[in-house]
């Protein structure tokens, strides 16, 4: 099947399903570059045109300072042969390896420096969607967005996005330049953005790009304790100490999947599409995978219709979740819910 197109905000048209490139690097296990490229080609062949990466994604080199950039370099190999078939989204703002003590910057010099570095690694002359990955909390967000807007004026960036911002921050940013998309975690078991951020995005005409739409693999029902222990999920309460308790959420998703002859991953994605329709906001999830077969499985979710009863049961799943969604090493203000 071929994934259909949808408009986010600011006139940005992309595929209804995106691809989260972070999964192709070391955070969830190693991937051979050849297999990663096969997966990316399979995504584009299925009609997935929005490829999402970030300057911080990848395996840091020993002794290196600053963002790794190796994920962008991987994506560059696809852009070299299929640039006119995709929209590339990347991010700046996290100044080093994601982990304890990670820093952020949003000053004009850094924004411009980060953009130039991403363009160079990606091997392209324009970024379709450029996100502020995390904001520098001591700096007014409008200052950072003004620097990003300069990049649009110069033709280096086509559209602007923000990741993990509050409703107030989104308003302040939108007063400086139109924001095409907000990227934050949103799924069956992570719904805090529905309180304030999503309604504000609707009001401002901003689309939504949910990351971790499959709960970092948990909602697929295939995640094992060993896989948790060997990845960035280790130490996070949802996956670690509450692994067993949160199987109740998976059980509900699997029940609905069995009724429709679908997979749990497809149902989790279908719920997001249905939620977007109910709330009135364009939604483009960006699940990541290292498997071409999983790409095709995820693409099939774009056409699944859920009944009212099935939606109600899936809605109730969020009340059963044990453990918060914030990363174990980060302070509460790392995600928008911690600053609301």
UniProtKB/TrEMBL annotation:
Source organism of the structure: Hoyosella altamirensis
UniProt cross-references to InterPro entries, sorted A to Z: Aldo-Keto_reductase (IPR050791), NAD(P)_OxRdtase_dom_sf (IPR036812), NADP_OxRdtase_dom (IPR023210)
Statement: the UniProt record of this protein carries the keyword Oxidoreductase: yes
GO CC annotations on file: cytoplasm
Protein name: Aryl-alcohol dehydrogenase-like predicted oxidoreductase
Domain named NADP-dependent oxidoreductase: residues: 16-318
Molecular function via GO: oxidoreductase activity
Keywords noted in UniProt: Oxidoreductase
